[in-house]
Design a protein that fits this description.
Four copies of one chain form a homotetramer. With 264 residues, chain A is an alpha+beta fold. Chain A has a domain at 3-115 and 186-254: Glutamine Phosphoribosylpyrophosphate, subunit 1, domain 1. Helix content of chain A is 21%, strand content 30%. The first copy, chain A, has helices spanning 15-18, 25-31, 68-76, 122-127, 142-152, 159-177, and strands at 2-13, 44-48, 56-60, 78-87, 102-104, 107-114, 184-190, 195-201, 210-214, 219-223, 235-236, 241-245, 250-254. Chain A has a seven-stranded antiparallel β-sheet. Chain A has a six-stranded antiparallel β-sheet with strand order 5-6-7-8-12-13, with helices on one face. In chain A, a hairpin with a 7-residue loop joins strand 2 (44-48) and strand 3. The radius of gyration of chain A is 17 Å and the shape is globular. The two termini of chain A are 30 Å apart. Chains A and C meet through strand 3 and helix 3 of A and strand 3 and helix 3 of C. Chains A, B, C, D: Residues 2-264 form the Glutamine amidotransferase type-2 domain. Chains A, B, C, D: Keywords: Glutamine amidotransferase.
Chain lengths: 264, 264, 264, 264
């Protein structure tokens, strides 16, 4: 499992989410409290939107707490929309290309969770990626595959439907060739305008996920774990939800992956 | 392109090939003389056979000349059979998982060369990898794909035939979807007993390749570029050859990739 | 030796200096034309000033051309004042803490050149660093020592005098304990307001250094090598000069290191 | 704090200490049980003696558990004498040069513990290093300084006395300029023949330290934490002890740092 945090709103320094809060993402990398792997030290990454359509991307393989470049970057860069992730590998190698977020064009994507037995159907997952998107396949994670499959299913046109297709296809592979739990997923993705978030699992252990509107920041934070213990107004994202965060509003609906049966 | 060196014979310190000769592999990483990219600084790797059936593997992303771990390792480790590689990327990212050699079980493999337009048929190349070998697909290079395709074609049973199949299949993809030059390859591979080497290209620019028996070392060196300028007895491996080096003998034959036509 | 580039003016994307010009700093890392070491691949770094008094700092040990984080960062970050450096080690280890620029508080500093025989008087150079500044001594280079000695000599009050003192003290050590050439230096430093540049050597081989005002950018570039071959209006900084670049003006004077004789 | 393990005896694969035991050093890097910092993920290192007088050295900045090079190396290299360390920084940067063990000539050294307020007297500690040994000062840790001071005090002639001098000098600095606790230290060092170990603190919280003779391996293991929970015969090293391990014997005596008063 992993921990992540995302933000959409008036521009803030990345450190206001990543490193300054009492239970910031970097603190969670050292001692997460709401998941089975308290240490998330197998690399990290941030994707942020600035003046360009495509996001910036910074990823490295050391623990987030020990990288001076990260510390400097989050203290300098101010952004209205960013994704940040600390990784605890579920098996795949620790390498930059396996660190979240992943990006392609204007899209960014990150994932906390897993597809059970992924190693046994990795090749089949890769086959689901559309030919013209395969150039973006740089690492070996289930998460990157999920993202690229979703891109091919039409993230640009209908993000929710594309994610429902992609999760459905991967879940079908996991059911056919993998092991339980077939899917556990808390995902955040963005096209540079909106922040899309989903929480879903095929069993009843969906990864923890919370969101909160900050009046002082005039922005949304969506996080694996609340950033401050004394903020009582974090809302839990219900399992089986898809959320669309806009500048000042959020729309939450049911997330229903396509129920697919694969031909043997 | 890249540069590489391999050794089979009485155990020697890796540094006797990697760093001590006047035109050692590390020197070639700074200033190769027989290829178009004189600087080969996009990572490096060594695979060596010791007491176990599986080889050791050490790879990193900095230039070979600047890594103190490498310098220390090649001064300590003595081996009867090893592969060493310095990389100049032809496009794929600089990451440990894209550095040569690649290993799977007792096999090790490295490659200098390229498949033209590989990015446009990467997914098709991945599909050629056998399902049970896909767990070894960690990076994104054409070279790793070639190795894993060859494993699936029976490296264990008949190395030459397996390589002829694998190169043939990849060449067919390159001809169908890629760009010229379709194949340029100097490969070394080993099962821990013998050292197999091939030099081939679909045009008339096969990567440079030489070999030499050393009486003082009682061993074979096979290299992209001769290690000493005053050793006049380096033999060029002819383009279109497959060589099998044993403890004291070498058998050289024609290398003929399968001529395949792919269905559209 | 190394190569570097600095900018002061209207905010531009870092890539406009670092990676986009025909002979950009990254190109110079692969093939510098005006110094004896064409390849500058022993790490790199950038320091940039944004909304805060202290600069951001990003440094890593791979060649500048192969780091995707750097590529992304220079395409996202826009700055009115920044320093960028690619390193060719003159002996010290390749490590992040030995990469330029160095920073302390609001100051940033980078250096191309060397102090002859520095290894033989490193400890004596460290002793010159003021006690309260020693916390900033993270690596082992002569360049970082020079910067910290200069800070202790009053960079805040009088940058030129502080650099003349610091270079003078280091040169005295080199003359007493080192080897020729005693000093070769092209330095850039900044307090977040002005850009200070010096070119000096104790022999007649000062590192190359040029500057140019760009009307289109409304800013100054100071570089080891001109960024475009078709821009004829690059001015050479004369050896033995100290330059103070302001928003639209430059003041150039003689740089005379203190002539010190050390007690044995 | 950190965790470490050392071995002297009949040659074994490094993995027999580093990664295979139920509470191996790598396990301790993820969940140490006898120190206040359960996670020791700020880099790691191994120094091992082979055929040469000088030890091999492999260090890197990621967590020990996530480095495939380390996993491969400890499975290939067999040694009669080695030191292995996982680091939890007490403030100094995570960099290879700050990772233990440190080596100089035939000596290797590692340390678990700290000198209180070291940042406030770092420069004074550096001044204690002998001029001709200063070339080995590559990082910024108190541990490396302690090692180099001890080398200058005569490790070659009398290891215990040299360590008593070095610890005494550093402790005097800590008492004069630092903060409590002034010294906490569990150190292992070797000249390639014997394994020297000390456990000491200026308060009553010396870092945990145990040793055990293995009949099956015919060797000594000295460790921060016992490697197997079902081995009841681990002996605690008493605080204030200096141990000299030979092939089959150990000599344990009192460790009394020199009581020095520094002139103001």
């Amino acid at each position: 499992m992993c921990r992540w945090a995302a933000y959409l709103g008036e521009p803030i320094f990345l450190e206001d989410i990543v490193s300054r809060p009492a239970h910031s993402l970097i603190r969670q990398s050292q001692g997460a409290t709401r998941c089975v792997t308290p240490v998330n030290a197998d690399g990290f990454g941030i994707a942020w939107y600035g003046e360009r359509a495509e996001p910036g991307l910074y990823r490295d393989v050391m623990p987030a707490w020990s990288d001076p470049n990260l510390r400097s970057l989050v203290g300098q860069v101010r952004s209205r929309l960013f994704l940040a992730h600390v990784r605890a590998s579920t098996g795949t190698a620790t390498s930059r290309n396996n660190c979240h977020p992943f990006t392609a064009g204007r899209w960014s994507f990150m994932h906390n969770g897993q597809f059970g037995g992924y190693d046994s159907f990795r090749r089949h997952a890769d086959v689901l990626i559309r030919d013209d998107l395969y150039q973006h396949r740089k690492g070996a994670t289930d998460s990157e595959a999920l993202f690229l499959v979703a891109l091919g299913e039409g993230l640009d046109q209908d993000p929710q439907r594309a994610m429902e297709c992609a999760v459905g296809r991967m879940e079908a592979l996991a059911r056919q060739k993998g092991v339980a739990p077939h899917v556990r997923a808390a995902c955040a993705l963005s096209d540079g305008e909106r922040l899309y978030v989903l929480r879903y699992s095929s069993d009843d252990h969906a990864p923890s996920l919370y969101y909160r509107w900050s009046d002082s920041r005039q922005g949304w934070a969506v996080v694996s774990e609340p950033l401050e213990t004394d903020e009582g107004d974090w809302q839990e994202v219900a399992a089986g939800s898809f959320c669309v965060f806009g500048a000042t509003d959020v729309r939450i609906g049911a997330f229903n992956p396509q129920n697919l049966t694969l031909a043997a």
